[in-house]
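USER: Write out one fold?

ASSISTANT:
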Amino acid sequence: MGAAGRRAAHRRSAGGGEVTAVLMGGGILIILVGIILSIALHEVGHLLPAKLFNVRVTQYMIGFGPTLFSRRRGETEYGVKAVPLGGYIAMIGMYPPPEETQQNDDGAGASDRRNGAAPDGAAPDAAQLAEDEQTGPPTDPYLREIGQQYAAPETPGQPEKPQTRATVASHSTGIFQQMSEDAREVAAEEMQPGDQQRMFYRLATWKKIIIMLGGPAMNGLLALALTAGTISLHGTNTPTTEVAEVYECVTSVAAEQAGGDAGDGDAADPTRQCTDADPPGPAYEAGLRPGDTVIAFGGQPVQEWDELTELIRASAGQPQQITYERDGQQHTATLTPIETERPVVDGLGRAVRDAGGNLVTEPVGFIGMGATVELQRQPPWEAGPLVWEQTKAVGSVVMTLPVRMYDVAVSTFTGAERDPDGPMSVVGVGRIAGELSAQEEIPMGSRFASLMSMVAAVNVALMVFNLIPLLPLDGGHVAGALYEALRRRWAKLRGKPDPGPFDISKLLPLTYAVAVLLIAMGAMLIFADIVNPIRLFE
């Protein structure tokens, strides 16, 4: 090649690198915007029912850290903060004041005194006023600064009115907004007239639960909408009854191949040479070849590959007739599926592993052939079963999260290959999105559809993760509301006085512990996704 040719090749290479970088950046940007919108709509899921039930919401914020932009609409301040990887809404009265939770022990008179009012309309004495002075704003500068974020706006020209202290709590998707040392100090706000009946803790239990489940429900709806749009407008890769490959012999399935097709396609290794010790492939012996279309098995018509697979797996050791079409003509042959241990797969076609990370297998029949995969559009209602299978898969990861995190740590520090179905951080999600977008052999429409599927999967993960019944997650608040309802019902059945609202701020130590664990896991996953990421395109 001459100098001019080398320069031209270099220009093409440089241009290709620039295109790849642009495609990767575009994919990362799409995923980042999708995650931010998912978080924003998660908080909308809390905001709408809160306003519907007349709880005063003082703030709706996306992100955490310093506020970049905010604007007040009515009684709520809407804004964006510096780190857009979380969000929260602030509602008044999420934590009941002490007098509400202690009134059964101290009596109504003591409750009035703590509010700065004397019983029966008597004037407060000096001791009471001194006590009120001591219960003013927090003295710690950090708490005072944070508390000001939730302060009610001052109205110019409006005379001061005696107010009753109440609480505002931030319900947060981001961890740091929830880690206050004292919920009442951080969330303190002077109530406005008429707010006494608008506090969160005064709501009926079912209303509290609806507000708290509004965020995860919104993520579930987003996952359904994105999945329905993807499978109905673009389609999904669907195995058909057309034969793609037929194996001359049958070998054991290697562990690294276990995540493939659920049917017969992995029953042999197409790259391995057959030996005399290997049993012949039943399909090959029966005369099937690539390009044939199976139309019946065991006397039962089949139209989908999954139907054919189930019949084959259930017929180990039993001679069966198979009818196939080749060049417009039907042919019938007899074959006997061989019984072997095959990986158990979930509804998404992925191999199931036990708590120790080992493949779960079962004895089934196979005949040694694989299916042709086509892009086929599905009706929108098929999104329901797909999202349900994703939900179960994420739930399985959450249930075995300690083991999964241990595996991530081991693979990170030993250089072993990461489990592609294991947990990953937003860094890992962005990296996969960028690599996917740069795969020029994949049609652009399929790449975009895959990115939308990734955003749907992120929403499924947000939904499931937030349902964990631990504070500061939504599930923890739901658990608190249910415990309060059960406690009150139990007291009523026993003829005891109403114990009052349950103060979830008493669970702050648990909140701290969970928050620290979540931060540690997030840091570990980010580190792993940088030094030893999940590789799907190598």
Remarks:
- Confidence is low (pLDDT under 50) at residues 6-14, 104-166, 174-183, 254-269.
